[in-house]
Design a protein that fits this description.
The complex is a heterodimer. Chain A is mostly helical. Helix content of chain A is 66%, strand content 4%. The chains are: A mainly alpha, B mainly alpha.
């Protein structure tokens, strides 16, 4: 690796590239939770929930684990580096695949 | 299981986040009141006789207005930004640290400007009157380090999300 490449690698990626997508709004809606209620359960400020949902703030590992434990879902079901497909699309595709197999 | 809404606290109005435009007005009001307060103090002490008319009362009112505006500013973003780590979540700590860094740069510039002013005053024949005028600025060195990080947070935090 050349010195120029090393220098390029040391520069943090732009915010857009570092964005972490999440399903928090959907999970909250499914459980009928307000931002305030989720924030209280996680021990954070409700505005922080809004920032995470909008992708304006990437939570740290400890908070990610807390969110994962709260929803009882694996981290990759809540957060992703790629935009999520709509849950309905994922569910219906799986159910149609299962019916095709049967 | 979780409740869907938290019961509103009796003092929830005090920590309800303000719109950014209102917060910025509050920041300007705080520093404007303090600046006018210092001018009134200076006029009161340098007038002959001292503290003519209702100048003393005006100074007290301005001091109370400054203190009230600053106290409201503390919780204007929806939380007391300048508080213990354990009372802030990780995003709030990030915002607070960024505000301190920015405030530090601003204070460095102000201290530099004041140092240059002091050097200029020392080289001036009428240095004593310059030093007296400098007393208008010295109180800023106390007020700004304590208030600027809070003001930066109130100034920069975006509008709160619509639904809570």
């Amino acid at each position: 690796m050349s010195a120029v490449d090393r220098r390029k690698a040391a520069v943090p990626a732009p915010v857009e590239e570092r964005r972490i997508y999440n399903r928090l709004p959907v999970l909250r809606a499914e459980r009928g939770l307000s931002r305030q209620a989720l924030a209280d359960a996680l021990g954070i400020n409700y505005q922080t929930v809004g920032y995470i949902e909008r992708g304006d703030f990437n939570p740290g590992l400890e908070l990610v684990f807390r969110i994962s434990e709260f929803f009882d879902l694996p981290i990759e079901a809540i957060f992703s580096r790629q935009p999520f497909r709509p849950l309905s699309e994922a569910v219906y595709r799986r159910s149609s695949e299962e019916s095709n197999h049967a | 299981m979780h409740s869907s809404t938290a019961a509103p606290s009796r003092f929830s109005w005090a920590v309800r986040p303000m719109a950014r435009s209102r917060r910025r007005l509050l920041v300007l009001a705080t520093y404007l009141c303090f600046a006018v307060f210092l001018v009134v103090m200076y006029r009161g002490y340098t007038a002959e006789p001292r503290w003519p008319g209702l100048l003393g009362l005006v100074a007290v009112i301005l001091f109370i207005a400054t203190a009230a505006a600053f106290m409201r500013l503390v919780t204007a973003p929806g939380y007391a930004a300048d508080t213990l780590d354990r009372r802030l979540d990780e995003r709030q700590r990030l915002v607070r640290d960024r505000a301190y860094r920015l405030a530090y740069y601003v204070l460095t510039l102000l201290f530099g400007a004041l140092s240059l002013g002091a050097l200029y005053a020392a080289s001036n024949d009428d240095a004593w009157s310059s030093v007296r005028v400098a007393t208008l600025f010295v109180p800023w060195l106390t007020f700004l380090p304590g208030s600027l990080p809070t003001a930066v947070v109130a100034w920069t935090e975006p509008d709160p999300p619509e639904d809570i």
